[in-house]
């Protein structure tokens, strides 16, 4: 069973109110049709609206956020770390209840990025690291996979 970033399932929950291009992910579409995928949006679960201001992790990665050593800030300078932490905890709870052991998450997201995230300066510079949810899932033994490994 897979936990999947909701935007990859065609749901309009991205920061700009758009959805991912579901046609780009036929395997994810198949998992959904077979009942093998559970869509979640940690940002929405954490209480953030759609649309919302873009946010990036400042001072580190999702692992650093979990340790209290970095935060998530939006383009207005608002600290939205608690929203990201709450959303990640709720998504983890949903995943555990559904019996998920793997996650397919949206790369580059401050919540879902699996190996690349933006560096917190809002200049589209990428660094190696995970988003908050991806980091939390790994702590709990999940296999975390980038959506880019499923794109066709």
Describe the overall structure.
The chain is α/β, with parallel strands linked by helices. It has one domain. 28% of the residues lie in helices and 20% in strands. The chain contains 5 helices and 8 strands, in the order βαβαβαβαβββαβ. The chain has helices spanning 26-33, 42-45, 62-66, 81-98, 132-139; strands at 2-5, 37-40, 55-58, 71-74, 102-105, 116-118, 126-128, 143-146. A 4-stranded parallel sheet has the order 2-1-5-8. It has a two-stranded antiparallel ribbon with strand order 3-4. A two-stranded antiparallel sheet has the order 6-7. The protein is globular and about 40 Å long. The mean pLDDT is 96.
Q: Spell out the helices and strands N to C.
A: EHEHEHEHEEEHE
Enumerate how many helices there are, as a single number.
5
User: Termini separation (Å)?
Assistant: 21 Å
* Low-confidence parts: none
Strand order of the largest sheet: 2-1-5-8
Shape: globular
The main β sheet shows up as:
4 strands, parallel
What is the oligomeric state here?
single chain
Number of domains: 1
- What is the CA-atom radius of gyration, in angstroms? 14 Å
Structural class: alpha/beta
Write down the overall mean pLDDT: 96
Portion in helices: 25-40%
